[in-house]
Amino acid sequence: MQKTTGIHHITAMVNDAQRNIDFYAGVLGLRLVKKTINFDRPEVYHLYFGNEAGDPGTVITFFPWENQMNGRIGTGQVGVTSYVIPAGSIAFWKDRLKKFGVRFIQNVRYGEIYLQFQDPDGLEIELVERNDGAKNPWSFGGVSSEVAIKGFGGATLISAQPNKTAEVLEDILGLEPVGQEESFLRFKSEIGNRIDIKLTPSVRGLMGAGTVHHIAWRARDEEDHKRWRELLVEKGFYPTEILDRNYFKALYFHEGGGILFEIATDEPGFAVDEPADELGKKLMLPSWLESKREELEHKLPQVESRVLEGDKQ
């Protein structure tokens, strides 16, 4: 059967681009691997953060637009994004969050300790220690490679119909059911992502700043991607056509619980249009918008990935 290995990326909505970079690069130590634009709304940035290479399974992306209304986390959305940190690094991350005034709580789920907090726009984030995943060699500011976030640990889905979402995870995407603990139903991907479906009632989600727009699942290559689309049509879903996002091919569909799912190819990756050691430094545009570079650079706010004052002391 068709089977995804796990999460490819997660995309969210925020307001301020520089504040977004300061938090995910400055505080969390992720690398800004791509600074480009929303292909559908070129006056809005599309920012990508991940490990050193921007490997699939590590990248969170953002559409920062100051004029959008605040959203509300609820049904039909990804409620929480989980990151894996190296075993033994949780004390470092507690100290770091305190240092930058990020309030957090500690919780236990399925026998694992999670640090739960919000980013400046209200997105729910959590860190969990695991041996899963390769070490991230990237160091930035006060975050060394020894404690750096390795990639996604998983996500918590808030579904309008949890049973239908569970069916898609298991029967379409091929995730392995783990079991139920209190108000969460858990699945596990081939690469170790833990996907929890929240079973308790929630308010209806409203799209806007501080919410996740979609979660993307991995396809190995373009042929595998085409087979995914054929399968979705066969199973009665209505996927979009395959779209070229420069760094991967993408298709989208809504699963039965209202959450927007994407399936994205691993290739060609973020070094397709700039050297690996230069990732994220320059505004990258698709070929059809290159003629408008001067106009777009004038409209877009000036932003940079910078070491925060708290790490200069």
What are the low-pLDDT stretches, counting only 5+ consecutive residues below 50? none
Share of residues in helices = 10-25%
Rg from Cα: 19 Å
Query: How would you describe the shape?
Result: globular
Q: How many beta-strand runs? A: 16
Structure description:
With 313 residues, this protein is an alpha+beta fold. It has one domain (7-311): 2,3-Dihydroxybiphenyl 1,2-Dioxygenase, domain 1. It is built from 5 helices and 16 strands. Strands 2-3-4-1-13-16-15-14 form an 8-stranded mixed beta sheet. The longest helix is centred in the last third of the chain and has 13 residues, at 222-234. The mean pLDDT is 96.
Secondary-structure map with pairings?
Blueprint: E1 7-14, H1 17-27, E2 31-38, E3 41-50, E4 59-64, E5 77-85, H2 90-99, E6 104-109, E7 112-118, E8 124-129, E9 151-158, H3 162-172, E10 176-181, E11 184-188, E12 194-198, E13 211-219, H4 222-234, E14 243-244, E15 248-254, E16 260-268, H5 293-299
Parallel strand pairs: 1-4, 5-8, 9-12, 13-16
Antiparallel strand pairs: 1-13, 2-3, 3-4, 5-9, 6-7, 7-8, 10-11, 11-12, 14-15, 15-16
Give short descriptive properties of this protein.
313 residues; alpha+beta; 2,3-Dihydroxybiphenyl 1,2-Dioxygenase, domain 1; eight-stranded mixed sheet; 5 helices; 17% helix; globular
How do you describe this structure in short?
The chain has 313 residues and is of the alpha+beta class.
